[in-house]
Write a structure and sequence with these properties.
single chain, alpha/beta, Potassium Channel Kv1.1, Chain A, 4-stranded mixed beta sheet, 4 strands
Length: about 220
């Protein structure tokens, strides 16, 4: 993401200038001024966190100015996009993102259970605009986290038809944390309706064999 946040010390990104909460996000401690009410409305984790049974909820009641919430493990750029969407700051929402950034937003949205709030934005991001297999794999994981079955089908179809290398080389920590190979292997049957008989036998068969090999390898490792 190009310059998605201002990382200067104590600089606050005013997503909601009259908000009651400042999120301090990531190791760079990016600061976002937001409305806790809007976060609670779209996210069950935030709703629970700001409730009467959690320290954060009590802190917000006791403070005269905006409360502060530390989120050191989150991706600041991704959370800024999510907060901008939730706060209807459309000018701050990119129309297109790199595949790795789409997955970062999907991971954060899934963590805070606010995928539905990003439905329309994510649909525009998930179009298979790239023919690079590594990016298609990232988009596959993002589509899975966004619960977008149509995008998942289109992206995996492009991946299977256009990529001739071993699928295991496309694996990375970000993808494996979002989607298991067992899930990925459930989709070869869907590709039959889109391809000729020769293409189907070649591509779907190769995908299924590679996925089964990976599942077997992982199962063997866990049994040791």
């Amino acid at each position: 993401m190009e310059n998605p946040i201002n990382t200067q010390t104590n600089t606050v990104v005013e997503i909601a200038p009259d908000g009651d909460l400042i999120l301090i996000v990531g190791p760079e401690e990016a600061r976002f001024h937001v409305h806790s009410m809007l976060l609670k409305a779209v996210s069950k984790p935030f709703s629970v966190m700001f409730g009467p049974d959690w320290k954060e909820g009590h802190d917000m009641l006791d403070r005269k100015g905006p409360a502060e919430l530390l989120l050191p493990e989150d991706n600041a750029a991704a959370l800024k996009i999510i907060c901008s969407i939730i706060h209807h700051q459309n000018r701050e929402v990119p129309q297109a993102l790199a595949a790795c950034d789409i997955l970062a937003v999907a991971v954060t949205a899934d963590k805070y259970d606010c995928v539905q709030a990003l439905r329309f934005a994510s649909e525009s991001w998930l179009r298979p605009f790239t023919d690079e297999a590594s990016n298609l794999m990232l988009l596959t994981a993002a589509a899975y986290l966004f619960r977008n079955a149509q995008a998942f089908k289109e992206i995996t179809r492009a991946l299977v038809l256009d990529y001739d290398g071993p699928y295991l080389t496309l694996s990375c920590e970000e993808v494996e944390s979002a989607i298991t190979w067992k899930v990925f292997c459930k989709f070869p049957d869907d590709w039959y309706k889109y391809t000729t008989d020769g293409q189907t036998d070649r591509h779907a068969g190769r995908a299924e064999r590679a996925c089964k090999a990976e599942v077997g390898r992982n199962s063997h490792s866990r049994s040791k």
